[in-house]
Amino acid sequence: MTDPLIVRLKSLIVDALKLEGVTPEEIPDDEPLIGAGLNLDSIDALELVVRLEKEFGIKISNSEESRTALASLKSLAAFVRERADPTRLPT
Amino acid sequence: MAVPFANTSARLAATGCLTPFGDSHATFTALLAGRVALAPAPFLGSDGGDRVPLALCPGRSLDESAPPNWAAFLRPFAATIPGEGWGSPRRPVFVTSSNFGVGSLYAFKRTNDAQHLRYGTPSKCVDWLRGELGWGPHVTTFSHACVSAHLGLLQATRVLNAGLADEALVFSFDFLSPFVAGGFHALKILNADFPAPYQDRPTGSIGLGDGAAFAILTRDRGDFAFLGQSLHNEMHHFTANQADGSGFAACLAPLVSLAADRRTWVKGHGTGTLEAGRLEAQTLATHFPDSPLVSWKGSLGHTLGSCGAVELAIAIEALRAGRTPGTVGSHAPGFTDHIAFEPFANASYDTVLCTSNAFGGAHAALLLAHA
Asked: What is the pTM assigned to this prediction?
């Protein structure tokens, strides 16, 4: 069954980073985000973190935490699920 | 692309700095005692926000006024600059800053008060300062993020060595604002943790500080000398360096041979970030293996565009006193074995390598010695 949070994160990534020629559906669930896969740089990570904090009300404390959370789509989903108010998660 | 090495020597007739501790001697004394100027403060000033390590001049608010509140600190500091006729054809001024009056632009955005606009852009800010400080028209502005001061020093050196001036004043300043603090906070490197430059720990962080400094350069007068200067921009990425440290190494290359057979200690950049700090320390250990490395940003915070000149003035105080302050705010383990966490005697050293690094992969270094 498709995880609604991962579906939402894919859409958010494409929108926040203005990824051209990529649709959310094309991004694999276990896609790496930093260092491989989408290979986001620090500016991309910054944009994404701002959107994530706004959408889910979570707080990323430092750049190392950001790097850990953004290692992959799965790690990001786990991070958000752990930190966010459950009422702000998609169902 | 590296700046050619030739013709980058000059004499230093005078230096001075202003930090939250006071003038260069007061700052040096505080660093020697291991004092920390940084304190937790909301990064958006009166608008609040997370508390992060900031070092503001005592009594100064992060929120901007019109005219800028930092002018009240800059005017008396500028009055300590020796000599007259600055800004005349043979005594030009080189102003360097990373942010100039950007706090005024932010204040205008918040308040819609057009008075702030008079100070907001680099050219307007410097124009206004020129009038405030009584300088003539020969004032040139340089800005290249956190190597701005080095850029000004090098250009002043070239003007002198080309015979176009008798003496040159390099004046550098950066005062914090919610705009600047907010920008670094957004990068997550300005966070709740205090900076610990070159310390090998799980998380990195920086602090930011107010800073201003001056240096008077001449061809042939002064107790101290630049033996050489170097600039390099690795043009790799806005916020990251090449992972092999080659950008750092390229900047050091022209000075390594100059420092051969000389005992050197290193005043590094060392903001407290992990990746860049590790690369910097490892590259310095490779090319200057017997040189103790210090950074003072764990106390003063990063004074941004003025850091090269502020820390130069402190290095001069250290040379005069025969003692170098350690890396305040940090303790073992370091990224390498040559980090000096504690103060040390420097009389047996011949030279000081002063380095700064900046966003965009810019690197700067100069080799300083008694004349």
From this structure: 0.93
